Known about the structure:
Layout: E1 11-15, E2 21-24, H1 26-32, H2 36-39, H3 54-65, E3 70-77, E4 83-95, E5 98-107, H4 111-129, H5 140-152, H6 157-168
Antiparallel strand pairs: 1-2, 1-5, 3-4, 4-5
Helix pairs in contact: 5-6
Amino acid sequence: AEIKVPEHELIVSRTDLNGIITYVNDTFAEISGYKESELVGKSHNIVRHPDMPKSIFKNLWDTIKRGKNWSGYIKNLRKDGGYYWVHAEVSGVYKDGKLVEYKSMRSPIKNDMKIKMQKTYDDLRAKEEGIIRIVTNISVENWQKLLKYAQDKNMNVKKTLDSILEDYLL
Length: 170
């Protein structure tokens, strides 16, 4: 389920030069569903949503490593499996002229932009990674069967569906 970032709230984090979180504000912890102690010391990609194209993060890293600021729209993954959309601004932090860390400030975005960016990112993932996102409804009974089947096979639901489709659609 989507969690909306409250208007006028700012999500702030800092990372070392390898993307390991060194600081989060209370808003980041609250919106992401993690405790501060669960975030600090972890890679920032702990909140990377699987809907996000890899090329977006490659562009982000390429940009900030050149000493430039990066901004764009990000769909993040919450600890509970939900998500939230933000506009992110990432830049270097310098001390005595030397790059020492990165900071990211994220703010809420409007629903029409979320819809536009989801479509854009879906198209990018299809083109670049050969992956499409599907959203569908199934009966509770079939969902429970799928979960049990996945558990019996010791797989997550995505791998289970891929396996079923490969077995039956060849």
